[in-house]
TrEMBL record:
<dbReference type="InterPro" id="IPR051173">
    <property type="entry name" value="Ca_channel_alpha-2/delta"/>
</dbReference>
<dbReference type="InterPro" id="IPR036465">
    <property type="entry name" value="vWFA_dom_sf"/>
</dbReference>
<dbReference type="Pfam" id="PF13519">
    <property type="entry name" value="VWA_2"/>
</dbReference>
<protein>
    <recommendedName>
        <fullName>VWFA domain-containing protein</fullName>
    </recommendedName>
</protein>
<feature type="domain" description="VWFA">
    <location>
        <begin position="197"/>
        <end position="391"/>
    </location>
</feature>
<dbReference type="InterPro" id="IPR002035">
    <property type="entry name" value="VWF_A"/>
</dbReference>
């Protein structure tokens, strides 16, 4: 007898089929973006392999376009809804310039036209990454064809190197020269470190009033928090005579935009007062971790405790007791929960305690960094955000080759529009351990009728910023946890990179740092001084000159 379904059942079946079809189509879009990111990664890896070749250096001379100083060869006006550079207009007419036929480069800080960056490794990165430009151009053309079926346009693709060099297509001018540092953006940290639990431990004792250390520490903590993604969990512990968790939380929380904004505001309200109790600080940090793990509310991956102080212990357990406490609690995390915790300690200023903080890092397989005061050119923000370098080495090991990261929608630095990014770490896999080179990323806009995510929104009938969509990004970014399996010499080499010889734990000498410390090319002595083509104008001056040419 044939099976007969009621009309209601048929409708339910049709709805289920429709949902399945929608999910399949969206999955194909996600997979395409992830595949594109991996292909881009492979192109950068191949380019790095050719960095020492003579042609790479020779053709780099005046062969690049800078985001602030260069007139792009085929620059045109984008539509106002695509992006607006506020310093150049309101977008009512022609608001900016871009070029889809070349990439642009930038670095944080000052880079004078006609001169090479002060760091020769950045110059080398400019030159080898230029080899990937033909791929980037062709990829953009192919993307225009693919996205035409959804009536949307492709977005930016870029490579952010570990040393600060940033290369992007389409080429577009920045409104503030030298202000952008991709290493402090969520997409970079997510791809270079993977999912993680982060506990920030801030000294708020009265001595932090000196030399703007409190403000410096607050800025650094906020920067670290703002680079976390929805795949991460975090907590902030403030300590002086006693310690407590900031923000009214107990345990670690997911790093959503709402949660990070709340903690950022709470950190801004911290006031220095009281003594310095290391023991209470670390006890609170480990208690928060234990509680979160027991509640099964963690990322399930690596743990980083970032501990900063400017003083010596004045209250609570002494130095030996604190070191023993930290060792015992890290061992308990490993034995009870099979979780590895890495301690990163930061001594702020020349008068800060060095012995205890360094001993804690050395005894637990962590990293200690001495950070001079601002007056002595100290940069705590860079020092603290560099914890991802250790985790990046873990992501490079076998089993994580195809790792990709998605981040919660955020405001893009160019144009101020909302979007997300799919990103993939890049390594030199010809050395052991693999050498971390940087991260490639592909932007995905949201919120407008002519952009990527609007296609996904239309297919699924979901808002791009909805909790359901957010869970999609989390699920795609937590597929694997990087395992940190470094030898004692490799770990000491990483300490050397972070803080020089003084930061090492005396395990090995510099001759054993191969793999962690990259080898220099023989051609580095012959790197070009002038890397930029057409670098005689500034941002809005370029725009004005272009408009004058069009009128004539």
């Amino acid at each position: 007898m044939p099976l007969i379904l009621a009309s209601g059942s048929l409708q339910l079946l049709a709805n289920a089929t429709s949902i399945t079809d929608k999910e399949s189509e969206v999955e194909s879009i996600f997979l395409k973006l992830e595949s594109d990111a991996r292909a881009f990664r492979d192109e950068i890896m191949q380019a790095y392999g050719a960095r020492c070749e003579a042609n790479t250096v020779e053709e780099c001379y005046q062969g690049n376009f800078k985001d602030c100083d260069s007139k792009f060869p085929n620059q045109v006006c984008p539509r106002a809804e695509e992006f607006v550079v506020p310093d150049c207009g309101d977008g009512v007419s022609c608001n900016a310039l871009w070029d889809k036929t070349v990439s642009k480069v930038s670095i944080p800080g000052l880079w004078k036209p006609g001169e090479a960056p002060s760091d020769s490794t950045i110059t080398e990165t400019v030159c080898y990454s230029r080899l990937a430009e033909p791929f980037m151009v062709e990829k953009y053309k192919a993307d225009e064809e693919y996205w035409d079926q959804y009536d949307v346009r492709p977005s930016s693709s870029y490579f952010g190197a570990h040393d600060g060099l940033f290369r992007m297509i389409p080429a577009v001018h920045q409104d503030v020269c030298g202000a952008y540092d991709h290493r402090r953006r969520p997409w970079f940290v997510a791809a270079s470190s993977g999912p993680k639990d982060v506990v920030l431990v801030l000294d708020v004792s009265s001595s932090m009033e000196d030399y703007y250390r409190m403000e410096n520490a607050q800025d650094a903590a906020i920067t670290v928090i703002e680079t976390l993604t929805v795949a991460d969990r975090f907590a902030v512990i403030a300590f002086s005579s006693e310690a407590s968790q900031v923000g009214g939380y107990t345990g670690l929380i997911r790093a959503t935009t709402e949660n990070t904004n709340h903690l950022v505001e709470a950190i801004k309200q911290l006031i220095p007062q009281g003594g310095t109790n290391f023991g209470s600080a670390f006890a609170n940090a480990f208690d928060a971790l234990d509680q979160t793990i027991e509640n099964e509310a963690t990322s399930g991956c690596n743990i980083a405790i970032l501990f900063m102080t400017d003083g010596q212990i004045t209250q609570g357990p002494g130095a030996d007791e604190v070191t023993s406490l930290v060792n015992e609690r890290t061992e308990q995390l490993a034995s009870n929960y099979v979780r590895k915790a890495t301690i990163f300690t930061y001594s702020l200023g020349k008068d800060a305690d060095h012995n205890v903080t360094k001993a804690i890092a050395c005894s637990t397989g962590g990293i200690w960094t001495l950070v001079p005061d601002i007056y002595d050119d100290g940069d705590l923000i860079s020092a603290m955000s560099a914890y991802y370098k250790l985790f990046a080495l873990g992501l490079g090991v076998e089993g994580n080759e195809d790792f990709v990261a998605w981040v919660e929608p955020y405001v893009f630095a160019t144009g101020g529009m909302m979007g997300t990014t799919v990103s993939v770490p890049v390594y030199d896999r010809n050395v052991t351990p693999y050498l971390f080179l940087g991260v490639v990323g592909i932007d995905v806009f949201i919120g407008s009728s002519d952009i990527y995510m609007s296609a996904i929104e239309r297919i699924l009938g979901e808002e791009a910023t909805s909790s359901i969509m957010l869970e999609r990004f989390v699920a795609r970014s937590t597929a694997s946890c990087p395992k940190i399996e470094l030898s004692a010499c490799e770990l000491d080499a990483l300490r050397f990179l972070s803080g020089g010889e003084d930061a090492t734990c005396g395990v090995c000498n510099s001759t054993n740092y191969s793999g962690i410390v990259p080898e220099t090319c023989p051609s580095q002595n012959y790197l070009p001084n002038d890397l930029l083509d057409n670098s005689d104008s500034k941002l809005c001056n370029v725009f004005v000159l272009w408009m004058q040419q069009k009128r004539h």
